[in-house]
Amino acid sequence: MSGVSLLVQPVWLILLPLVGSIMVFLLASRRAAVGVAVVAGNLALVAGSIGRLGITGPWQHSVGGWGAPLGIDLYLDGLSATMLAMTALVSLGISAYSAAYFSAAAARHFWPLWLLLLTAMNALFLSRDLFNLYVTLELVGIAAVALTAMRGQREALVAAMRYLLTTLLGSMSYLLGVALLYHSTGSVDMVLVGEAPIPASVAAAAFALMAVGLLLKTALFPFHFWLPGAHSSASAPVSAALSALVVKVGFYILLRLWIEVFPALGDGVAWLLGILGGVAVLWGSLQAILQQRAKMLVAYSTVAQLGYFFLALPLVAAGGSRVWGAIVLLVIAHALAKAAMFMAAGNLLAFAGHDRIRDLDRVVQRMPLTAAALGLAGVSIMGLPPSGGFSGKWLLLQASLEQGNWPIALVLLLGGVLAAVYVFKLLEHIFTSGTPLGEPRAVARTMEWAPLMLAIGAIVLGFLATTTLDFLIIGEPFVPGRRDDY
Amino acid sequence: MIISPAFSSTLPLALVASSLLPGLIIFALAEESVRLRTALNLLGALSKLLLVALMLWGVYHDAAFETRFELLPGLPLILRADALSLLFITLSAQLWFLTTIYAVGYLEESPHRSRFFGFFSLCVTATVGVAMAGNLLTFILFYEMLTLSTYPLVVHRGTPVARRAGEAYLLYTVLGGVLLLLGAVWLYTLTGTLEFRPQGIVSDLDVGDHKALIIIFVLLMGGLGVKAALLPLHGWLPKAMVAPAPVSALLHAVAVVKAGAFGIVRVVYDIFGIQFAATLGVMMPLAWLASATIIYGSVRALFQDDLKRRLAYSTVSQVSYIALGVALVGPIASVGGLVHLVHQGLMKITLFFCAGNLAETLGIHRISEMNGVARRMPWTMAAFTVASLGMIGVPPVAGFISKWYLGLGAMEVGADWVLLVLAGSSALNALYFLPILYRAWFLEPEGDWPQERHYPRAETSLALLIPPVITASLALAAGLLASVPFSPQEWAKLVVVREFLDP
């Protein structure tokens, strides 16, 4: 440790946004400037960690010098670093957008909660023990609910309440599973629990409880009921954060559990989740096609896109880290593209005063940058090349055909077609030449550039697929068991 | 010829950049900056022509131009220039230059020109990428980019009709893209490579895989057939007529249908290998399908009164000559198919330019309004006449060369029925083109033109008049000077020698 700069300790990734959150809470003005600076600093810290990961490999840090089982250990491997990087990048885009979006009054609520959310997500990606994951998961949930409720309108409050109940129920269910495992193994460390002998019935019950809890939070069909309302009624940057980042957190924990704690899960579970994922892809896409409002369309698109992560689970047993890598690529691509889409939809709403799709005439002339953001993000969501969405889908399609798994291949293809239908439902109206209704209000330039940059990121990811996949497997996150080189 | 490696790997990139960069800059330009936009457009088009000329010289002397970049694990993005790519690139670079001039004149004073020319440049970029793709992954990448960049051009006018045409276009092309993707990934799981190689990449596969290969062939042809407007996948093409004339010209002559036809040639030659494809038994069905499309398109064209729709069905028919020439599996027929890639482009772009001139200058959209129009617009109608005669196959216009080689090639491989298809199609071509020429040259005008505009220097604006006159002359020259080095015919022979006889 001695040779390593003090600043690339992972603990700073938690401390910086936490301190920032308290600071913006206490500050009387300039909250946005401080907030953006903190998020930019977070990105720099993540970049430092990535640099170190590339040089020294994965590592573990015992906070305050206390190691497990007493203290808190932070771990960093290729997967956690990738998730941190995704979060840092998307957060920076959302923060730049928010700085222009919120009034001073709203900023007072937004920035402390937003930085708290970032703190919780960073801590979650650095944790590798079941109880810490619970704590951070709960924090993420509470911050997210508070952000959803922030707008204070009736619609938002109802959606936030529903979201709150769902997320609490989810954490509860997850915690019960943790308790069962702790009772049986005497540990909450993921690797120790995974190596300990657990009676099959306990393991099954624990997995079921934890999985249901996480699926509720990740909004996998049929647990998606809360998502469209919450994601569409929140203010635009919050919608972006919820859809791009918060729902991924549950999936990330499930992925870690799948690999480390329950490596012996049978094909049945994989298939069950795979089928639910497939239904989510089709159902979410059909719902998106039927929506009349832009934000609802984008929210249902999230339901569909989340389905892909689960759809691929039956392939991981035979496909191994390549399939996991493809899934993570899709996770990142979706984060970038969906954040861009929600912010672009927010621009439409702010500009026109409504987001009824059929009245979005001539937007492309009046807000070309926003239209470009929608278009480029749409390319990745549809899975067209070159984009992160395309690379991920290609690899999954390849894996499913190699394994002769035609149902998954067909859902992948059909999902792409349906996505094209809803993306172009949105895009075709921005090219129409009707007379716009009402007096448009100008939108700040940063609010146009932020989604465009993220959408370009989703495209660029298509060119960085190989690099990302190579980076991802540093520290072998997709192989179960203790790694001695930490 | 010795070329430094750095040069040979940057040239393909430069060729892509020569239209991509101007396009991206043009998006950012204000609507009013007409001069800067036009300058950028022409600069891009001219530098592309220059680069293509360099490349032509290099490839003729067996130089290799290639750039690689790892896009997916084990699957690179490859841009490479070989004789076949250059056949297509040269066509698109020349016609892009002329279409740019035409579009500048055509869209004068109309709204959203920055958007139009931005996507226009992206469209040409995609075409060049399709032409230089060194493997199927790269091909798909640019093929989809072509779909996305032409969509805004099709719906450019923003009317409900344009929007519906755009929907039809997307419906066909997105579904086609899915077939192509499935075929490509499936193929990759069998072969472990998607690289285009002379004689193909599948001939070593086990006999047990042949059934899968046939399905893959059908999938790939389905995906490519949409853009090439093969029966029954042609439905989008006549609808897309609502687009502005330069877009139709581009769609029909250079970019979209040609990308499909070119893809068919690539897949047959460099994925399956023509001999192997013949032993798989997939070439005869393709020849029948192409023949059916040729006849069907011509018959439908007969019954259209809308000039652009008649031309659109004529495209459906004519583009399938390319597939037919390839599908006959003989070197002579292949020359006919390949050379038609260029010839049809020259002739069809002339026809669409002329149709655009009639609409812009006189407000004429229907054939029944064309009585005596040649008196008012002799140059336009002269160009139109040359191109129509070429389409019919009258010597010495370029179309005759295509049909000649196709006919000879068919007899060489013993497919004499193709002569009937060619004769029938030529008769139908004559039936739907000659009445137009008769009306235009020999009938009296019926009173005033629907919407006449006057231009001081010629029958129409010079930017609209010069491009069709040049393309018609090129179509004539390609026929008259068919045996001169670097003519389309000679280059097609070079392709066939390299791909077919002596790979």
UniProtKB/TrEMBL annotation, chain A:
GO CC terms of this entry: plasma membrane
Family: Belongs to the CPA3 antiporters (TC 2.A.63) subunit D family.
InterPro entries per the UniProt record, alphabetical: CPA3_Na-H_Antiporter_D, NADH_UbQ_OxRdtase, ND/Mrp_TM
TM stretches of this protein: 6-27, 34-55, 75-97, 109-127, 133-151, 163-182, 202-226, 238-259, 271-290, 297-317, 323-351, 363-384, 404-424, 449-474
UniProt GO BP: ATP synthesis coupled electron transport
One Pfam family, short name: Proton_antipo_M
Protein name in UniProt: Multisubunit sodium/proton antiporter MrpD subunit
Species the sequence originates in: Chromatocurvus halotolerans
GO function term, MF aspect, one: NADH dehydrogenase (ubiquinone) activity
PANTHER family: NA(+)_H(+) ANTIPORTER SUBUNIT D1, NADH DEHYDROGENASE
Keyword terms, alphabetized: Cell membrane, Membrane, Transmembrane, Transmembrane helix
Bilayer topology: Multi-pass membrane protein
From TrEMBL, chain B:
Protein's cellular compartments: Cell membrane; Membrane
Chief location bin: membrane
Any Pfam family hit: Proton_antipo_M
Record's keyword annotation contains Nucleotide-binding: no
Residues spanning the membrane: 6-30, 42-63, 83-104, 116-143, 169-191, 212-237, 249-269, 276-299, 319-342, 379-405, 417-441, 462-484
InterPro entries to which the protein is assigned, alphabetical: ComplexI-like_HydComp (IPR052175), ND/Mrp_TM (IPR001750), Proton_antipo_N (IPR001516)
NADH-Ubiquinone oxidoreductase (complex I) chain 5 N-terminal domain segment(s): 78-117
Cellular component GO terms, alphabetical: plasma membrane
Membrane topology label: Multi-pass membrane protein
Residue ranges annotated for the NADH:quinone oxidoreductase/Mrp antiporter transmembrane domain, each copy included: 133-425
Descriptive protein name: Multicomponent Na+:H+ antiporter subunit D
Provenance organism: Chromatocurvus halotolerans
